[in-house]
Sequence to fold (126 residues):
Amino acid sequence: MGEDGIGSTTPRALRRGRLALRCLPFRQAFYRHLESRALGSNDLARAPAATGWCLSPVGAYEAEGHLIWLIQLGVLRREVDGQGLTERVRLTPLGRQVLAPWSAEIPRANPGQRLWGWLQRHWPRL
Fold:
């Protein structure tokens, strides 16, 4: 276990998380927002362009798919309230580690990296 009491982060988990962030339409501002406040896919879809959270508009259904992928990777987690899990998400400690190398904007993946990211997402056993 790591010093924080949770399992240690593997280099593979960091690589997969970083590739996912580079392939998705979310900007650094979106992830920084999730460090302090939870956000749901509907909130994200309704957010005005002025928030700077996305490179292009994202619908609620598409946003939910991206959020589920980031949850599966361990970058995000569902927020819990008094009645159980909610549709809102927050950044995890792994998510903070994944973001650590980028103090400015997250660099976009090149076409080959985007293809590899798509394959990992849709055919994870490769």
Observations:
- Residues 28 and 105 are 6 Å apart (CA to CA).
- The helical segments are 11-23, 28-36, 41-46, 60-73, 93-99, 111-122.
